[in-house]
Amino acid sequence: MKKIVNKSITLALSKGRIFEDTMPLLAEAGIKVNDNPEKSRKLIIQTSDPNLRILILRASDVPTYVQYGAADIGIAGKDILIEHSAQQPGGLYQPINLNIARCRLAVAVRQDFNYKDAVKQGSRLRVATKYIRSAREHFAAKGVHIDLIKLYGSMELAPLVGLADAIVDIVSTGDTLKANGLVVVEDIIPISSRLIVNQASLKNNVASLQPIIDAFSRATNLYE
């Protein structure tokens, strides 16, 4: 198979849905991945292109690895990129919305919670989330004061045990919310995954990076 890159390129991905949704895009580019991270403990995975390797990271770490040059390119959800840019602005080029791993960032509460009255202008809410910037900006635009409680998992528990009035979290099917007696009361923003590129890598290694960026672009167009 003809190599898609001439110099070594490192692609940062996270396990789960983003990895799974990226595989057809790589296949369209003529690249096969040698291991499945769900079955392998390897954190560096080789591909059928000897000059392209994949790092398996936590989703929240992907932008950091790309921004600081440990990876040349990566794929991350818009939700992660919004939060990352609040803490580490600049340094990332986002050439393509891949339109994969689609979901939405939303506000959810207990089914018996009167959200409409709770968000009247000037009111105050306790909101649990790991999406601090998105939550703060959303409620500030509504004129609602919030006390933010940062959590990293099991977000649905917070309203059930009285830790928070509402949560801001990623929603896909909504099944987990429903199973725990919560309902979505407001959508904040639609989410999909973006291709991100280290700006220095693109400048210094454009001959190798541009073909894979172009390959992702062509593959994405096929799945729109």
UniProtKB/TrEMBL annotation:
ATP phosphoribosyltransferase catalytic domain sequence ranges: 58-215
Catalytic activity, EC: 2.4.2.17
UniProt-annotated location(s): Cytoplasm
Function, as annotated: Catalyzes the condensation of ATP and 5-phosphoribose 1-diphosphate to form N'-(5'-phosphoribosyl)-ATP (PR-ATP). Has a crucial role in the pathway because the rate of histidine biosynthesis seems to be controlled primarily by regulation of HisG enzymatic activity.
Recorded name of the encoding gene: hisG
Subunit structure and binding partners: Heteromultimer composed of HisG and HisZ subunits.
Note on domains (UniProt): Lacks the C-terminal regulatory region which is replaced by HisZ.
Similarity annotation: Belongs to the ATP phosphoribosyltransferase family. Short subfamily.
Annotated metabolic or biological route of this protein: Amino-acid biosynthesis; L-histidine biosynthesis; L-histidine from 5-phospho-alpha-D-ribose 1-diphosphate: step 1/9
Top-rank EC class of the record's enzyme: transferase
Descriptive protein name: ATP phosphoribosyltransferase
Organism from which the protein derives: Candidatus Kinetoplastidibacterium blastocrithidiae TCC012E
Database matches in InterPro entries: ATP_PRibTrfase_cat, ATP_PRibTrfase_CS, ATP_PRibTrfase_HisG, ATP_PRibTrfase_HisG_short
Domain of life per record: Bacteria
Keywords, in A-Z order: Amino-acid biosynthesis, ATP-binding, Cytoplasm, Glycosyltransferase, Histidine biosynthesis, Nucleotide-binding, Transferase
Lineage, highest ranks first: Bacteria, Pseudomonadati, Pseudomonadota, Betaproteobacteria, Candidatus Kinetoplastidibacterium
PANTHER family found in the cross-reference section: ATP PHOSPHORIBOSYLTRANSFERASE, ATP PHOSPHORIBOSYLTRANSFERASE ATP-PRTASE
